[in-house]
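Thread amino acids onto this structure.
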């Protein structure tokens, strides 16, 4: 998955809002209900590095992989940065970002969650069919 297709896919999540923050932040954030679930760095030398939240177990797993590191200033909250999105396995990336989105939604009020749920049921046919489906052992029980 390249950067452009990832950005497009992130905007498809129900209630997702894309916001470009200029200097000094230089980030492109993706939020749902005001809660961040992903962002890109937009300035050099880190242009288009992609970050999202992971479970504590996945954080340890991911930061042990080449090209993945703790996100700057956010690592203590289990956010990771992928240096080159195109080199990362697409199905696994989709699963990880889906968890990050779900985590952000879980922090919203029940009313807002119901509102997003209604929007999600209307958009379910538009979502990519390949969400999830990581190769190897499943870690779906990690989400808490």
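Threaded sequence (144 positions):
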């Amino acid at each position: 998955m390249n950067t452009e297709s990832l950005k497009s896919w992130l905007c498809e999540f129900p209630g997702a809002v894309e916001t470009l923050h200029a200097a000094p932040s230089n980030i492109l954030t993706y939020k749902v209900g005001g809660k961040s679930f992903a962002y890109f760095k937009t300035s050099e030398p880190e242009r288009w590095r992609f970050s999202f939240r992971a479970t504590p177990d996945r954080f340890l797993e991911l930061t042990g992989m080449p090209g993945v590191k703790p996100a700057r200033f956010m690592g203590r909250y289990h956010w990771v940065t992928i240096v080159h999105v195109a080199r990362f396995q697409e199905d696994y990336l989709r699963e990880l970002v889906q968890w990050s989105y779900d985590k952000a939604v879980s922090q919203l009020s029940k009313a807002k969650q119901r509102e997003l749920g209604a929007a999600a049921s209307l958009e379910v046919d538009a979502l990519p069919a390949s969400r999830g489906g990581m190769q190897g052992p499943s870690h779906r029980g990690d989400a808490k």
